[in-house]
Specification:
Elements lengths: L10 E3 L2 E3 L3 E3 L15 H9 L5 E8 L16 H16 L4 E6 L17 E2 L8 E4 L2 E4 L4 E2 L5 H17 L4 E5 L5 H6 L14 H4 L1 H14 L4 E5 L13 H12 L6 E5 L3 H5 L7 H5 L6 E4 L4 H9 L5 E4 L1 H5 L3 H7 L25 H5 L1
Parallel strand pairs: 3-4, 3-14, 4-5, 5-10, 6-9, 10-11, 11-12, 12-13, 13-14
Antiparallel strand pairs: 1-2, 7-8
Helix pairs in contact: 1-2, 3-6
The protein binds flavin mononucleotide (FMN).
Length: about 375
């Protein structure tokens, strides 16, 4: 059934009334300063995008162990909290709302990025195919160390502390990064989880860490200020699952109990199909999940409006379009032309390709 609802229809999402349904997707840009501290350039970048219904920040490590790439910001030191406070204050001054995406990369790291050059940690000692993006360039992944069962409370504590720090940094909420082959996703899917303790084997066991982390974060923020992101079809970071409908169906159903601000899904893409992944679309989860559903992946204004009008999702997040178009809502509203994103400046560098994409008024002037 089609409705008159579109991207510009306001919507209640947890504790917030969003003025539109265009969300800025989390986007790693590898431009944090020394000590993984957000700086003035990051403030400018987020302020430029404050007209989004909601900004979700780039993935941000909750602990030194959670880091997997060079120049990604953290939320574990006082300096990082102070740096993020500049971002959140400025976004609020410009009328925006901003959630922090909380990240632990698990095995998608490298000893050179880890405290004391330790091995990255993971559910099981399985080396991902591919290379880590370190401070000295790309280096092959290593075989991670499998976490002991008695270390898991310490992992949950890293998220809980990260949530406390995000509160101190002035965010409006947090999104738990449960997607894209990082630690929580590694526990969830059976391609990366070969454990025999209560965190491995059955889908109930593999989903346990996701749910325990969600509970801990909700304990800090309250459910109406917490979202979670999942990628049921993604093969990125060498991920696989033998039965994604069952695995993700179970977790999505279990998440209903929290009454979170939203569930954020990523649609499968061409690359997932090429890598032999089974695509499970957002539509599969629509009836399983009872709350606000956000989806993402390859949308433009027309496909987003159509999906929202048809009731297939409540919110759409845009990644690459928000990189290139700081004023994306305004451009959509006016049916204006869009700037093209430049992939060569996505990860790392300085102002170029980060804060120099023009807004409409500047272009016209
Ligand atoms: C440069 C870049 C960085 C990304 N960083 C993150 C990230 O930090 N966290 C995350 O969950 N997804 C990340 N993604 C995935 C995007 O959030 C999004 O799912 C993807 O770009 C597809 O949406 P789009 O077609 O609207 O760009 C990243 C994507 C790109 C292109």
């Amino acid at each position: 059934m089609s409705t008159n609802v579109n991207l510009f229809s306001p919507i209640q999402v947890g504790a917030y009334t969003l003025p539109n349904r265009l969300v800025m997707a989390p986007l790693t840009r590898n431009r944090a300063g020394d000590g993984n501290v957000p700086g003035p350039m990051n403030v400018t970048y987020y302020v430029q995008r404050a007209s989004a219904g909601l900004i979700i920040t780039e993935a941000t490590q909750v602990s030194p162990q959670g880091q997997g790439y060079a120049y990604t910001p953290g939320i574990h030191s006082p300096e990082q909290v102070a740096g993020w406070r500049l971002v959140t204050d400025a976004v609020h001054e410009h009328g925006g709302r901003i959630f922090l995406q909380m990240w632990h990369v698990g095995r998608i790291s490298h000893p050179s990025l880890q405290p004391d050059e330790a091995l990255p940690v993971a559910p099981s000692a399985l080396k991902p195919a591919g290379e880590a993006m370190t401070f000295s360039g790309l280096q092959p992944f290593v075989t991670p160390r499998a976490l002991e069962t008695d270390e898991i409370p310490g992992i949950i504590e890293q998220y809980r502390q990260g949530a406390e720090n995000a509160l101190a940094a002035g965010f409006d909420g947090v999104e738990i990064h449960g997607a894209n082959g990082y630690l929580l996703d590694q526990f969830l899917r059976d391609g990366t989880n070969k454990r025999t303790d209560k965190y491995g084997g059955s889908v109930e066991n593999r989903a346990r860490l996701h749910l325990e982390v969600t509970e801990a974060v909700v304990g800090v923020w309250g459910a109406e200020r917490v979202g979670i992101r999942l990628s049921p079809s993604s093969t990125f970071n060498d991920m696989s699952d033998s039965n994604p409908e069952e695995t993700f169906g179970y977790l999505v159903e279990a998440l209903n109990r929290f009454n979170l601000a939203y569930l954020h899904l990523i649609e499968g893409n061409e690359s997932d199909i090429r890598h032999g992944g089974k695509v499970v679309p957002t539509s599969y989860f629509r009836s399983i999940y009872k709350g606000i559903l956000m989806t993402n992946g390859g949308f433009d204004q027309q496909t987003a409006d159509e999906l929202i009008a048809a009731g297939g999702a409540d919110l759409i997040s845009f990644g690459k379009l928000f990189i290139a178009n700081p004023d994306l809502p305004e451009r959509f509203r006016l049916n204006a032309s869009l700037n093209e994103p430049d992939p060569s400046t996505f990860y790392g560098g300085a102002e170029k390709g980060y804060i120099d994409y023009p807004a409409l008024a500047l272009q016209a002037g």
